[in-house]
Amino acid sequence: MLANRRITWIAAGLAALALAGCGKQEPVTATTAPAPPATARVLVVGTDAAYTPFESQNEKGEIAGFDIDVVKAIAGKAGFEVKFVNTPWEGIFNALDQGDRDLLVSAITITGERRQTMDFSKPYFEAKQLIAVRRDAQVATFDDVKAMKVGVQNGTTGDEVVGKLQGKSSGNIKRFESTPLALKELEAGGVQAVVADNGVVEHYLANNPGGGFKTVSDAAFPVEQYGIAVKKGNAELLARINKGLDDIKADGSYDKIYAAHFGSAPK
Ligand code: ARG
Fold first, then answer.
1. Most CB atoms closer than 10 Å: which of 45, 102, 148, 154?
2. Which CATH class, in words, describes the domain spanning 129-216?
3. 38-126+225-262 in CATH: which number?
């Protein structure tokens, strides 16, 4: 392969010489092609696709959801191509740092701690934690789950708030690999509450009307902002993403995507 390429270049060089010899004023072409810019290749987007309606994977293996549509629209505006790769939440930030993923979209809350190790786009979605409990549970505020077994997705902001309430090392915090697994455990009775992002909890309840669950919100939960993450220092890609995000907000495509997934335009 390498040898072949070398032969091709030698041939090209000879051809150029021959042309020069013929007295034609053709410029001699460079013998080494410059490295393509990062955006000339398909960018790999990591997403933990077990987070409906933000990202999920269907039977055919296709990844779809609100986040996916947002990134596709941004890529369309910014002129780069993307490919989505299902990436478990637990290794997702590491995959970005190692360069195995170029960007991440995964309903990722922008936090001060995460900002230390990666860079975030401007916020593209607002969220809050929401508690899911059995309909007959005596839970009116977050404080009421203090002594309960609570399911969370490991390493999420839900894990963080419950850790603050109960103490990080509380044996009552059950940490799951994915949010659906935590919700399954609530169904099975292994935990008495689940704390996760409102959009996902609401979607789950709407699709399990017979599940016997209710949600409890608490004004004390901080407002969270989702951002698209890039490797720390990748200012070039970040600028493109931010510009693309501005563009899809300005031309109405963001609102269309929002309405398609959440039924109404954002407030
Ligand atoms: N917003 C929460 C966080 O950043 C949960 C995100 C989980 N996303 C996912 N695709 N599983 O911690």
1. 45
2. alpha beta
3. 3.40.190.10
